Amino acid sequence: MEQDDILARQGRAVRAMGSAFVAAILEAGDRQLARAPRTAALMAAWPRDAASDALAMRFNAALHALARSGTMPALTALYRARAGDFDGVVGAAMAAADGFIADWMGDTPQTNEVGRSAAIMAALMVLRERYDMPCALYELGASAGLNLNLDRYAFDLGGTRVGAAETPVHVAPAWYGPAPAWRAVEIASARGVDLRPLDVGDADACERLMAYVWADEPARAERLAQALAIARVAAPRVESGDIALWLPEQLAAAQASGTCRTVIHSMALQYLEADGRAAVEQAFRAAGARATADRPLARISFEWTPARDAVHLLLTSWPDGRTEHLATCHAYGAWLHWHHGAGATG
How far apart are CA 145 and CA 264, in angstroms? Predict the structure, then answer.
């Protein structure tokens, strides 16, 4: 993908996903890019794949953050109305806040999308079929750790209800295919890692997360706000560190008998360099070779395919090393095509 076309291309993709407003923001940004020379130079010289690094979504979040701040009344009004002079307003904002946008885009996205926890919970129920024991949860690229709190949320998974009885966070993706069989998921412990974890007690960090929610999806924003409120009371354990170094250390540590060590990652590995991804894969191979029936290992992956044409929910468990393609998913978890039980493996 050409870096200088990334905003327009992502705009077309977002429009196909049903977000006409975000598409209009991106398309206007593409047309007005010359008014923001620092941002344009950053994108033109981007050293990695712009799609994998979600460069267009970084730009979109920067504009949303400016709109939410209220410092640019015309931009705030455009976002509230979701209609108006996109080129004029977005272009003026880009010219006035070029440095802010470029600085924002230099940081890795922090979406911490709670909607993806539905897929993770469904995979955990399948895992409970394989190993009838609690799991010790580890998350790679955990951001603020909101998905580590998934046992504090309520889920409707194609009619199968699971999770907390009393909670303000309800996750009910559009479901296609058979509903997963209900299993009691028990989280014995939960911890994660991120290069720059977000502190749920920091208002600026929370605002950064809110800016990554698409501006025309208020239900997502409300669910995120509720998940943040829960996390401020029940703080997830997220450590600062490099995934490629942290994961081998965790998998090499002693594991309690009768507990399934379970590693989850959602839209995280795409930000690693090739050597980092290789280190992660090697860590899984080495730990999988040590896994036993009473000390199993599992991996739940919610990531783009290498061709970036679909998001697959994969479950691999050891000691058998079997991988199953459980579902094909919307990137933010809005819908799932469930395959488990239909003979789909991969």
Answer: 12
